[in-house]
Amino acid sequence: MTSITIKRPDDWHLHLRDGEMLEGVIEHSAKDFARAIIMPNLVPPVVTTQDATAYRERIMKALPNGMNFTPLMTLYLTENTDPADVAAGHASGLITALKLYPAGATTNSDSGVTNFENVMPVLEKMAEIGMPLCVHGEVTSSDIDIFDREAVFIETVLDPLRQRVPELRVVMEHLTTKQGVDYVRSGGDNLGATITTHHLIINRNAILAGGIRPHYYCLPVAKREEHRLALRQAATSGDTSFFLGTDSAPHTDPLKLQACGCAGCFTSINTMSCLAHVFEEEGALDKLEDFASLNGPSFYGLEPNSETIELKKQQTPISFPERIETGAGSVTVFDPMYPLHWQVV
Ligand code: DOR
Ligand code: ZN
């Protein structure tokens, strides 16, 4: 096959940031994606409907003229989140989901949740109104090995929480383990998961073998090969529980390349080319549309996009910039470490 046409995809987990970084990266999402779930981990975080209204306006202002892109806004769940504000934001159509960061789990997550008892009223309200909770699924205690944090989170936090509020719709964001895949497969209709582009391509060797490569460092950190293979199997299976969330998370190069570098891979620009490569390798190009364009809207109760995009396989490798320049500084583009041939035309 040398050409494939699919419904225009959406990105169910995206960091657009703010200010000059937002201005520098937004076109790379808007080019291929119709909609995206916008992560709220700004400094300070997007915690109220009012914050989200203002952030959405800044996003729309940064969008280049003539580009079509709908940001689906989220609120950052804190122990002070007001259930009434959440319900009003959801009812108005502005707020699509809430994002749960365990305190300290990742970039700008200091305001996250420590005591789940304090957020139960919000979660119960969300269950009642059918509003999804997007979860950064890692425990944060220092005695848990970083490679085990997702599996321990499922067992000790997520499963008890879901048993307590079974009607709550939950998206496990950026799944990275076989345990996560198995849990989502057996989790019923109220549980879905996003999988990133990079976790389908790299395992932990990319970060650590033969030298330390900060541009492959993200959270949750990439795991062993067996986990990458489980993720590829899940993403290419057509199973409606799994859908694309790039977690494209731009940081400037100086912030990545330092003694304590930031977590995040910038993938919005070449995700569709990378995915076509992965799906072709798995003999599953016919499942690319499910993963990138159909399963996400179905979980979120939205219609798929009506437009389509075409990907063509070029004989000679296509090129992406090594890095993009933004007003905030340069951002290195995720390198899959092999030539890419599939191009969105
Ligand atoms: O790698 C990551 N980067 N993982 C996250 O969960 C947050 C993100 C960011 O905001 O930089
Ligand atoms: Zn993220």
Could you walk me through the main structural features you see in this protein, from its secondary elements to its overall organization?
This protein is of the alpha/beta class. It has one domain (3-344): Metal-dependent hydrolases (TIM Barrel, Alpha-Beta Barrel). It has helices at 19-32, 49-62, 83-91, 120-129, 149-164, 178-185, 205-208, 225-236, 253-256, 271-281, 288-300; strands spanning 3-7, 11-14, 35-38, 70-76, 95-100, 133-135, 170-172, 191-195, 242-244, 308-318, 323-326, 329-332, 340-344. An eight-stranded parallel sheet has the order 2-3-4-5-6-7-8-9. Helix 3 packs parallel to helix 4 (120-129). Residues 13, 15, 39, 247, 249 line the site of zinc ion (ZN).
Which parts are unreliable, with pLDDT below 50 for 5 consecutive residues or more? Answer: none
Along the chain, the helix and strand elements come as EEHEHEHEHEHEHEHHEHHHEEEE
First-last Cα distance:
15 Å
Q: Biggest sheet, in brief?
A: 8 strands, parallel
How would you state the average pLDDT, rounded? 97
Strand percentage lies at 15-25%
Backbone shape: globular
What is the fold named in CATH at topology level?
A: TIM Barrel
CATH superfamily membership: Metal-dependent hydrolases
Number of domains: 1
- Proportion of residues in helical segments: 25-40%
Rg (C-alpha, Å): 19 Å
Continuous helix count: 11
Instruction: Indicate the CATH class.
Output: Alpha Beta
Q: Under the CATH scheme, which architecture would be assigned?
A: Alpha-Beta Barrel
The computed structural class is: alpha/beta
Placed side by side, the strands forming the largest sheet appear as 2-3-4-5-6-7-8-9
Would you report the number of β strands?
13
Ligands present: (4S)-2,6-dioxohexahydropyrimidine-4-carboxylic acid, zinc ion
